[in-house]
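Q: May I have one protein plus its fold?
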Amino acid sequence: MHNTYKKLREFINKYPGGIAWRLKKHCAVLDTHINEDEKVLYVFAGQKNDSFTNIFQTCVVCLTNKRILIGQKGVLWGYHLNSITPDLFNDMEVHMELIWGRVIIDTIKEVVTISNLSKKALPEIETEISTFMMKEKQKYARKEEI
């Protein structure tokens, strides 16, 4: 069992003010898909949409030592999981708005927006994701050169 919920509680205690629901259920989705050789580095929660008024699409974002996982448990059944590996990562934008902030992750296949985040958490989220991705992208560049 991975410690995604424990790490998420630490994040929420450090940065209250974001909007997120049913966190244990969303973390359970992530725990199901985290491989044995992966280590959980950072976890945060928000809404997986680009509208601050839509507060019913909570997701939990988990940064492991190999990829970014975004998990959402369905209300009645099923779940959704996105996996973003460093080779698919293009760019990231951080927006601080009046009440909350949002992070936009651009990949080769899609654009993922996580909204209704605490404004105080934005610098830490950006630092964790960009530091990891820059380090991992360099490994992919070296493999392509060989």
User: Anything to note?
Assistant: Residues 25 and 77 are 11 Å apart (CA to CA).
